[in-house]
Amino acid sequence: PFYVYKRQKKHGSYWYVCYINPDTGEQENARSIDVLKEKLSMGSGYTVTDRDAAVIIASRALDAGLVFSQGAALPFNEYCLSFWNYDTSEYISMRNKLKKDSIGREYCMNMLSNYRNHVEPFLSDKLKLGSINVSHLDRVVECAFSSGLSSGSVQMVVLSFSIPLKEAVRKRLIKVNPASYLMKIPRSERERGVLNASELRSLAAYVIANDDNICLAVMLALSTGMRSGEIRALNVADLIKSEIVRDDGVSLTRVVIRHSLAPYSGLKSTKNKKERSVFITDSLAAHLIAKADENGVIFTSLCGSHMSAVNLRLGFYDILRNIGINESERKRRNITFHSLRHCFNTLLADEDFTVQERMETLGHSSASVNERYTHTSDKALIKASMISSSLWLGAEKSAEVPAPSNV
């Protein structure tokens, strides 16, 4: 990409470099090696005495973006933090214009948190975008593992700098993405805990006996497999009375899952950006409607807004304690509110639902799923509502109901 030569002048000989413009293939004007050395802040201790030394400086100047790209001279930390600023990032704006809601505020906040906590502290603020190399990134990954992060969390840390680097290559700010040379990090997620049959019966009996919002949310999660954010975002407008009556004579209401609730974004689209439907009984729908406020919000907080994820999570943990699962056991088994979604999926699997039926009922479809599998038939959804109803029927017949909590 360049060649160096020595030019004789009145007061001595000096090294120069001529770069070849990668866009035009034309030769650029000659540049002084000594001037480039000063811009690189290599210090007086580095003397240009021969061709090899001149080549090293010319190469470093190219990598640092001193020749064709000013962007490469940006501080790396500053570049990445700006990249994940949801309100000002050109990259995020363009992605969301190409595909609506492609990148949400929540995702950006998570990336910023990962970068600030696990990348920025281990890189010098003087480190330039054009100077970042694999050794720098290896150190970041090593420190992330040393801090006790799981492999999945470390992968998210890597994404916080690898995506900005990939975009820097696309925009020709740098030539090579050093993150592409990192060793592959194997993913090993801790298995999500689920409740056994006896615990599910106890849980069902408890929530039927207690008519508060937390219990109603648990009942909805176990009846439909809805996510926490989807439940908290639910509005009366999402409940549509159907003409469908199951074989057991129970009338059904269709729940259209359109939104999810997130701390920073508020109401947003569902995780896979698609609407889906589930069926619940008319009696459960009536309970939900009775809880709604004047705006139709079903799960509200004491201050009148949507119920928070924290309140739902802690309320669920309180219920677990009431059915005999203390905090230490809950942590050991990794049981969370999201476990109810896994329990519902297990119920469907036990009743021989196909993988495709389960994915669509739970909203697990992704880009890799063929488009012809986008919608599940009402027949499968009705069958799913029948399965969850059997759990509540057994709970209603339970002779023993745990005492309500005062917490």
Please tell me about this protein's structure.
By secondary structure, the chain is an alpha+beta fold. It has 16 helices and eight strands. It has helices at residues 33-39, 51-63, 76-83, 90-98, 105-118, 134-146, 151-170, 197-209, 213-224, 228-232, 282-291, 309-322, 327-333, 339-350, 355-362, 378-396; strands at 2-9, 12-19, 31-32, 239-245, 251-257, 259-262, 266-269, 276-281. It has a three-stranded antiparallel beta sheet. Helix 8 (197-209) packs across helix 9. It starts with a strand and ends in an 11-residue tail after the last helix. Mean pLDDT is 85; it is low at 366-376 and 403-407.
From the structure above, extract its key features.
407 residues; alpha+beta; three-stranded antiparallel beta sheet; 16 helices; 8 strands; 11% strand; disordered C terminus
How would you sum up this structure in a few lines?
The protein is α+β, with helices and mostly antiparallel strands and 407 residues long. The chain contains 16 helices and 8 strands. The chain starts with a strand and ends in an 11-residue tail after the last helix.
Taking the sheet with the most strands, its summary is: 3 strands, antiparallel
Taken from the alpha-carbon principal axes, the silhouette is elongated
Number of helices: 16
Question: Runs with pLDDT <50, length 5+?
Answer: 366-376, 403-407
What percentage of residues falls in helices of 4 or more residues?
40-55%
- The termini sit apart by 71 Å
Overall pLDDT score? 85
> Which percent band covers the strand fraction?
5-15%
Q: Indicate the radius of gyration in whole angstroms.
A: 29 Å
What is the count of β-strands?
8
The SS-based structural class is alpha+beta
What are the secondary-structure elements, in order, as H or E? EEEHHHHHHHHHHEEEEEHHHHHH
State the strand order across the main sheet.
1-2-3
